[in-house]
Amino acid sequence: MGRCIRLVLLALVSACLSSRRSQSRTSFSSDNRSADLISAQLTGTKLDLQSRPMSRVVGPRSGDAIFASVERVNAELFTLTYGAIVRQLLTDLEEVDEVNKQLDQMGYNIGIRLIDEFLAKSNVTRCVDFRETAEVIAKVGFKMFLGVTASVTNWDADGTCCSIVLEDNPLVDFVELPDTCQGLYYCNILSGVIRGALEMVSMKTEVTWLRDMLRGDDIFELQVKLLKQVPEEYPYKDDE
Amino acid sequence: MIGVGKMKQYSNVLDKPLNKGKQEVSLSAFAFLFSELVQYNQTQVDNIAELERRLEDAGYAVGARVLELLCHREKGNRKETRLLGILSFVHSTVWKVLFGKVADSLEKGTEHEDEYMISEKELLVNRFISIPKDMGTFNCGAFVAGIVRGVLDSAGFPAVVTAHFVPMEGQQRPRTTILIKFAEEVLRREARLGG
Amino acid sequence: MAAAAIYSLFIINKSGGLIYYKEYGSAGRMDTNDSLRVASLWHSMHAISQQLSPTVGCSGIELLEADAFDLHCFQSLTGTKFFVVCEPGTLHMDALLKVIYELYTDYVLKNPFYEMEMPIRCELFDLNLSQAVQKDRVALLGR
Predict the structure, then answer these.
(1) Considering the domain boundaries, does residue B178 fall inside one?
(2) Residue A146 lies in a domain
(3) Where is the signal peptide (chain A) (predicted)?
């Protein structure tokens, strides 16, 4: 076993060192890889450090295409299950503010897991800017998971704050808020999902409800505000 | 409480006609939501039996509302009065609406008169879930057991409903059986009606 | 020619911790400490390679070719890394990594009993992974 590791280490070290030497091994690469794996944008850098993101080869997929290709369930199962969750929270926590917070937290927990499936299925590359990010959430994200399309509006001058707007919302079909639940943001799980998902790709955001159909507005409107974009660079601060 | 199944129309909102139940979401969306339901309930309990109970209770509310919705939509408000009728309704109609297919099988228990079993090779809710070894025979299908209990109870057929993993010969994965044990009064009524 | 063989699969979380290791080769399984060390080392090497690279916006090593093995690595935008060590010249490893990533998003991330960043102990993930690797093997050997 020890020898195996030494071989691996040796290979790794020599790979890093040789990255700066001009070894042209591109012919080897074309023998061994089928054409569709070779990106047209080969930079010509050394084989070991080829910037060949897989996503660039296939291209990002549309929300409709993904939704059509995944397994789907009746939205009613989803709506009713969500209703059961909110009901449980109201029973357990009683205070509407606490329920709002818990829903957001649950959404966050979902978002940090959901983001990988979003990336895997949508083939998006690193978004150039926040504008692109918001568009992709609205057009691809909402569609591939909830089957509905959202739109992005109300950009501020910086391009760091916008609104995501949706009419159709499978969380709330035929839900009616009784008077005892004034102040409840029934769909607060959604704000957490977006916040959690974006945090996993190094974007810290603040997501709040501007308009809520269950409170009498004519549309659902979420405000998404980019606070900080910090990709972690090696050496990481919390390395032991 | 929060009501589902009422068709309140806000005057300034799109006038939605009664949903025929054709709208869909991705299985993933449901799976993530269900996973979070389980995780939340895990934080609220001290042991597995309690977790099972909480999931069943969550399902109960769903079952009650499913019956409301379906009775209105599918059966034109006709009520089932016979045992086999309601069982068939659960096994076929309820299953189709919620899980996209009828249940794999409906069987009468051989040992007890009041027991019936609905079985599935794999419950939809369990599709992505692997139970850790230290949780023994725990089955997240307790949620589905709750749904069934909710439907039956609201239809006038009170029962105790539980979910169980049943190992199958030659199969790597066990199947799930929803065990329904009807209350005495149901059997008595059934006998009276000439069951 | 191409007798394709996967020797091992590693999955590392975004902090460099090993969360999954599967040995397919005949050399036998690396012991726990060694596998943890190798994962941690690769994590650092991968990060360093991004800084060494003369290309702007380099996303790190994707392919390492040595005499006795190839190493294919895929890093998601969330920082989780999936890499296979395989026989030199093995085809379709990138596609296999993508499949494994999707299996991870299904059978690991949707499991309520899985805690983020922790070692993966999900029976369904193991089952489906075996099927995917087996399918890959059959497809390649069938040529």
Answers:
(1) yes
(2) yes
(3) 1-18
Backbone phi and psi for residue A47, each to the nearest 5 degrees, phi listed first = -50, -45
- Residue B128, token pair as written in the block: 């992505």
ipTM: 0.90
Per the domain annotation, does B12 fall within a domain? Answer: no
pLDDT above 60 (res A50): no
The DSSP line for chain C is: -----EEEEEEE-TTS-EEEEEE-STT-PPPHHHHHHHHHHHHHHHHHHHHH-SSTT-----EEE-SS-EEEEEE-TTS-EEEEEE-TT-SSHHHHHHHHHHHHHHHTTT-TTPPTTSPP--HHHHHHHHHHHHHHHHHHHT-
Q: Is A117 on the interface with C (CB under 8 A)?
A: yes
DSSP conformational letter for A140: I
Whether chain A has a CB inside 8 Å of the CB on C142: the answer is no
| Cβ-defined contact of C107 to B28 (cutoff 8 Å) | no
Comparing A14-23, A82-91, A210-219, the range with the smallest average pLDDT is A14-23
pLDDT for residue A237 is more than 90 = no
Kindly report which listed range (A74-78, A143-147, B13-17, C86-90) carries the lowest average pLDDT score: B13-17
Chain C 21-60, residues with CB within 8 Å of chain A CB atoms: 27-28, 30-31, 34, 37-38, 41-42, 44-45, 47-55, 57-60
Is position A56 within any domain? no
**CATH assignment at residue A91:** 3.30.1380.20
Q: Has residue A192 been placed in a domain?
A: yes
Contact B26 A70 (CB under 8 A): yes
* Tokens (6 digits) for B194: 């000439």
The number of folded domains in chain A is: 1
Q: Is residue A53 situated within a structural domain?
A: no
Domains of chain C: 6-141 (3.30.450.70)
The per-residue pLDDT for range C9-47, each reduced to its tens digit, is: 999 999 999 999 999 877 778 888 999 999 999 999 999
Higher pLDDT, B64 or A27: B64
The answer to whether residue B169 is domain-embedded is: yes
- Structural domain span for residue A121: 63-229
